[in-house]
Amino acid sequence: MKIVEYYSHLNGLEFLPVHKPHLCKEIKDVISEVDANQCRTKVSKEKTMKGKLLFSPIGMNGAFKCLLRAREWEEKRARYWVTRNEKLIRKTLAMSPKEQKREIEAAGEEAISSYNQTDFVKERVAVEVQFGKFRCL
Asked: To the nearest whole percent, how much of the chain has pLDDT over 70?
């Protein structure tokens, strides 16, 4: 694959090459190593493209996962409890999940389990791999 556009979330594009050049290089290396044509395995069911081979988002994610995990990038998942009461959520924000649940339930509210997941993290740098509709250039 190759990079054709950038989106710099929170100025990450400006930060990485200066402060974490080795991670910037790893990310670019992984992108260049992904062979998108090997991921062209999804058969379209859409009326206008019926039977045409498309890029499989599952296959593309798998390729990134394999290459990034080999470089010690790991998935991170943070679990926590929320409720419909915004004031109570703010109060419990800094607590451990166990304390959050106890505090919410003690207030007579329903504790709702939730989590935040990031695809790949290394040295506090996060990479999220996501695909939507795309076209061949």
From this structure: 96
Structural domains present in the chain:
9-127 (3.40.91.20)
Cα–Cα distance, 95 to 67 (Å, whole number)? 35
pLDDT tens for each residue of 114-135:
999 999 999 999 998 877 655 5
d(CA 109, CA 103): 9
Torsion, Cα of 44, 49, 54, 56 (10° steps): -30
Torsion from C-alpha of 47, 48, 52, 56, nearest 10 degrees: -80
Measured distance between the N- and C-terminal CA atoms of the chain, rounded to whole angstroms: 11
Distance CA 96, CA 74 (A): 22
Q: Which of 77, 76, 85, 78 is nearest to 112 (CA)?
A: 85
